[in-house]
Amino acid sequence: MIILANILIVTTILIGVIFLLVAAIGLIRLPDVYTRTHAASKSATLSVMFILLGVFFHFWLIEGHVNTLVLLGIAFLFITGPVGGHVIGRSAYLTGVKLWEDSVKDELAPVIAERKKRHEQK
Amino acid sequence: MMIFFWIVLFLISLSMLGFIYRLIMGPSIPDRVVALDSLGVALICMIGMISILSESSFFLEIILLIAILAFIGTVAFSKFLEKGEIIQRDNNLS
């Protein structure tokens, strides 16, 4: 039984740490802010959720007490990680950070231009 | 089992080095903010590992604290970049 618990803990923590390394590699190698936000918010959020799930399983199955704070932390990170990525990407676009040169489509640019024109008419 | 947790701790610190590289070399300010946000996430993972290694569950309250502080810091910094001020003044109050 303890071997099964160890296998479960090792699997969840290993998945989490692999996703964290993928987030680090993406943050180093991707070309502009938006792709880096994409890598950081999704992959880092998933990795920290898996690692905290492994910590929760360890304290539940090995040490023998259920810690509800870790579950609350998992839920909080699941909500706030993508929201943080969205907010910082939006502020990066509105402060005029350039996209990558090879990017094909920029669907937000006409919306921003129209809003600016309407703002000047007032 | 303990050796596995030490190896995981080492890999987490390795990915933290990647985030610190982006924090230093980032060409724009939102790059650095993204790197700081993921640095907080990696710090949460590290605290989970340390609480397993030291066999005490008292560190687990720090996890929620760091998550809340990292989120508030990211939102405040992006609002500062976007609008120029963090807490806006109310014009109706005289």
Summarize this structure as a short list of keywords or feature phrases.
heterodimer, A: 122 residues, mainly alpha, 81% helix, elongated, B: 94 residues, flat
Describe what this molecule looks like in 3D.
The complex is a heterodimer of chains A (122) and B (94). With 122 residues, chain A is mostly helical. Chain A has helices spanning 2-29, 33-63, 68-94, 109-121. Chain A has 4 helices and no strands. The longest helix of chain A has 31 residues, at 33-63. With 94 residues, chain B is mostly helical. In chain B, 78% of the residues lie in helices and 0% in strands. Chain B has helices at residues 2-25, 29-53, 60-83. Chain B starts with a helix and ends in an 11-residue tail after the last helix. The mean pLDDT of chain B is 89. At the A-B interface, helix 1, helix 2 and helix 3 of A face helix 1, helix 2 and helix 3 of B.
Distance between the termini of chain B: 64 Å
Global shape of chain B: flat
Estimate the mean pLDDT confidence of chain B: 89
Helix content of chain B: over 70%
Q: How do the helices and strands follow one another from N- to C-terminus of chain A?
A: HHHH
Q: Per DSSP, what share of the residues of chain B sits in E-state strands of 2 or more residues?
A: under 5%
Radius of gyration of chain B: 17 Å
Q: What's the pLDDT, averaged over the residues of chain A?
A: 89
Radius of gyration of chain A, rounded? 20 Å
The succession of helices and strands of chain B, N to C, reads HHH
Structural class of chain B: mainly alpha
Low-confidence stretches of chain A: none
Q: Sum up the overall morphology of chain A in one term.
A: elongated
Please report the distance between the alpha carbons of the first and last residues of chain A: 71 Å
Strand content of chain A: under 5%
Q: Main β-sheet of chain B: number of strands, strand sense, barrel status?
A: none
Largest sheet of chain A, if any? none
Number of helices of chain B: 3
Q: What is the strand tally of chain A?
A: 0
